[in-house]
């Protein structure tokens, strides 16, 4: 795995009705091998930060559901970001958001197509 593999607690509002809860957000994790994986989360608490002997205490271990990592050719593409992701981003959590679904074979626009699009949309454009 690559990316930021640790997270601090974020106090965020979520749910209906909105309630403040604690979330551990992992917004930048990648898996480098194909296969089925299950993530394990270890929870620690920092204690005695204001004392002369701060220390870390292990609290518990949790396991997530199985995730399936496929190869690039069979990857279905990125979906648009969820409402929860957008809500967390609006509350200050740094996440990469997608506005729309993107497939791996989607055609990329050339700079000429971008300029043509601007010309069509703006009557004052003088490209």
Helix and strand layout, with pairings?
Blueprint: E1 2-3, E2 9-14, E3 19-24, E4 29-30, E5 35-47, E6 55-69, H1 83-90, H2 111-121
Antiparallel strand pairs: 1-4, 2-3, 5-6
Task: Give a written overview of the molecule.
- This protein has 127 residues and is of the alpha+beta class.
- It has a domain at 2-34 and 70-121: Sandwich (Immunoglobulin-like).
- 15% of the residues lie in helices and 35% in strands.
- The protein has helices spanning 83-90, 111-121, and strands at 2-3, 9-14, 19-24, 29-30, 35-47, 55-69.
- The strands form three sheets. A two-stranded antiparallel sheet has the order 1-4. A two-stranded antiparallel ribbon has the order 2-3.
- A hairpin with a 7-residue loop joins strand 5 and strand 6.
- The chain is globular and about 55 Å long.
Features:
127 residues; alpha+beta; Immunoglobulin-like; 2 helices; 6 strands; globular; disordered C terminus
Task: Describe what is shown at a glance.
It contains two helices and six strands, in the order ββββββαα. The chain has 127 residues and is an alpha+beta fold.
């Amino acid at each position: 795995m690559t990316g930021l593999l640790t997270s601090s607690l974020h106090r965020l509002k979520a749910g209906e009705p909105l309630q403040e809860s604690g979330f551990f957000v992992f917004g930048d994790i990648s898996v480098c091998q194909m296969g089925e994986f299950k993530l394990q989360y270890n929870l620690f608490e920092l204690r005695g930060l204001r004392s002369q002997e701060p220390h870390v205490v292990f609290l518990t271990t949790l396991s997530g559901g199985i995730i399936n990592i496929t190869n690039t050719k069979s990857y279905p593409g990125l979906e648009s970001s969820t409402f929860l992701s957008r809500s967390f981003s609006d509350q200050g959590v740094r996440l990469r958001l997608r506005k729309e679904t993107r497939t791996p074979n989607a055609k990329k626009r050339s700079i000429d197509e971008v300029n043509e699009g601007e010309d069509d949309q703006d009557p004052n454009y003088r490209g």
